[in-house]
Amino acid sequence: MPDRSKQNTALVTGASRGIGRAIAVRLASEGYYVIANYHSHREEAENSLKQIRKNGGSGEICQFDVRDAEAVQKAIEKITKTRSSIDILINNAGITDDQILVMMAAEKWNSVIDTTLRGFYNTTKPVVQGMMVKKAGVIVSISSVAAITGNKGQSNYAAAKAGLIGASKSLAQEVAKRGIRVNVVAPGLIDTEMVASAPVDAFKSMIPMGRIGQPEEVASVVSFLCSEDASYITGQVIGVNGGMA
Ligand code: NDP
To answer: What's this model's pTM, rounded to 2 decimal places?
Structure first.
């Protein structure tokens, strides 16, 4: 059993399912103590933790809504009381709520933008403050191929995910001299609940590799960006999309 107090800490938002779970499991298998955030699916978050432990890793689950600044702040204060610092932050929590713009209710626009962009701000600001004191840290945010290509019915989602790229590139420049790297991973179509109702077969013709991706294929790129192997990479957007863009 590793000495938990000596393990670096990774906070992964939206780690109760899909890509977030795969990232949490992967980082834990590499020795990070993983804080697996969830919003509404506690049982699924517990399943993520079980998978982390099954693979020999360690961590804990932590409930907060990334849209709620006060809740995020309190959770981060609590984490940094027990862990000395948050060394890795993965901004993964995200939702879709599709509709063509001309028909889109303001609520759909706001909820998607809020989860991704307000969520990025609420989580990243307090975490990066701690990283600046330590003069070290890595932040990876999960955008989407939709940010680059656009997607019919996803103007809210594409705007939010494109915003994440601009925010990350700016932050990367602000904190580079403090030893903090900030990057973005932009997946294509990945096999999770988010795309469960999508016409995947119809989409396959748009993917040069002819198949959708697995969450683990995103997690391995995130893991690379968090590692020393990526020590000179910051402010970048890495596509994981089977050649879509
Ligand atoms: P899922 O829908 O499977 O999981 C979403 C996760 O985000 C869940 O853990 C959920 O928590 C969490 N979440 C949602 N809202 C909040 C909130 N307000 N506060 C905290 N956590 C929240 O999605 P995926 O795994 O597919 O997607 C993960 C990320 O990857 C998202 O940002 C998504 O946009 C992006 N992405 C996904 C692609 C895909 O094809 N799947 C393609 C490109 C990008 P809970 O279940 O507890 O509510």
So the answer is: 0.98
